[in-house]
Amino acid sequence: MIGYVTLGTNDLERAARFYDAIATELGVGRMIESAAYIAWGDVDGAAGIGVTVPFDGAPASAGNGVMIALEAASAAQVDRIHALALALGGSCEGAPGLRGEGFYAGYFRDPDGNKLNAFVIS
User: Fold this and answer.
1) Are 37 and 51 spatial neighbours (Cβ–Cβ below 8 Å)?
2) Which pLDDT score is estimated for 2?
3) Which phi and psi angles does 9 have, rounded to 5°?
4) Which of 24, 43, 92, 117 is deepest in the core (most CB within 10 A)?
5) In terms of Cα–Cα distance, which of 95, 97, 112 is closest to 18?
6) How far is CA 112 from the centre of its chain?
7) What is the reported pTM?
8) What residues does each domain of the chain span?
9) Could you tell me which CATH class the domain 4-54+62-121 is placed in?
10) How far apart, in Å, are the Cα atoms of 32 and each of 45, 48, 50, 53?
């Protein structure tokens, strides 16, 4: 079972704006933060997501083939999250739509290049 996922960032303030908005849309807030990292989610809930300035001091980079999937409550929420991501400086990796029977998803990258999607299964 996954407890949480952490992504690297080169600009914590920019990442905070991006993920604060996405987390708000998903109905969660910050659960822990410091000068070097922030995590969002519910302490007693599903896996959370965090961003951090790399501990080793080297630049953060997006992993090739790595993607974080955010479970949405509805197709309309997938659409809103995807639009939020783009409005906050993210880039489109696939507009929201059906990707198979009952699987609706929209793909995007955060401003650091990390790939995510929002999805719902109906």
Assistant:
1) yes
2) 82
3) -140, 150
4) 117
5) 112
6) 11
7) 0.91
8) 4-54+62-121
9) alpha beta
10) 14, 10, 9, 15
